[in-house]
Amino acid sequence: ADIISTVEFNHTGELLATGDKGGRVVIFQREPESKNEPYSQGEYNVYSTFQSHEPEFDYLKSLEIEEKINKIKWLPQQNAAHSLLSTNDKTIKLWKITERDKRPEGYNLKDEEGKLKDLSTVTSLQVPVLKPMDLMVEVTPRRIFANGHTYHVNSISVNSDCETYMSADDLRINLWHLAITDRSFNIVDIKPANMEDLTEVITASEFHPHHCNLFVYSSSKGSLRLCDMRASALCDKHSKLYEEPEDPSNRSFFSEIISSVSDVKFSHSGRYMLTRDYLTVKVWDLNMETKPVETYQV
């Protein structure tokens, strides 16, 4: 098995998706609690496995695009089927996961093997019936969102409106509609006119769980920027900047490396943000920009 590169629970916690360096996605399902141990959480067993991405080659730039899955995000469930987004460095894919435990039998124009009958042999009509069969999990690709990023995609986040999502690379964040694959809308662009002036890159981004106009993105310098899409089409000017003042006495060559935020998440309520850097996990209050409310050494 390949090294796991990302993990993501669905909204109920029933399913757990993992992506690996070989471009595979493995979905685990939680087993129901046993009657003998009613309070024990069921363990997770393999539910489905599929190849999400293959290695590609960019001939224009002479670059290999590896198949490693960078991020997986589940979409809120609308019906019996589940949907998830998976991305490697360049291409985002939407997958649909469905279950089938019945099969139709008794066709009028087909035989048992599915071949068409000779119409002259059909003398009577019958009503096809659904017969139970072993559970089959089918995974089908629904959309492929390509050519939206020049740099490597580091995060994807589904909006609370359930219609749009965003994807972030080192210098830009794009807004996509889940039904439109051939174009996206650029909402953040921190690329300077001269690349020598570049001082930081985007490391992660996340939509607010309740307000579809708000999102946050983190940087390699350890800062968080909260943006409001109602303010302007291009959110280069943030609404709030969350940054801990640096202690000059502790500054060293490694300060910027260890302060780089690797991931950011909102709490379920949307009141707090959780960030992970090299040495700590920090909890930020959306109403307090000057310092985190909690810092945990990890």
Automatic annotation (TrEMBL):
Signal peptide: none annotated. Pfam families: WD40. GO terms for molecular function: protein phosphatase regulator activity. One of its GO terms (cellular component) is protein phosphatase type 2A complex. Keywords: Repeat, WD repeat. InterPro entries: PP2A_PR55 (IPR000009), PP2A_PR55_CS (IPR018067), WD40/YVTN_repeat-like_dom_sf (IPR015943), WD40_repeat_dom_sf (IPR036322), WD40_rpt (IPR001680). This is Serine/threonine-protein phosphatase 2A 55 kDa regulatory subunit B. Belongs to the phosphatase 2A regulatory subunit B family. It comes from Tinamus guttatus.
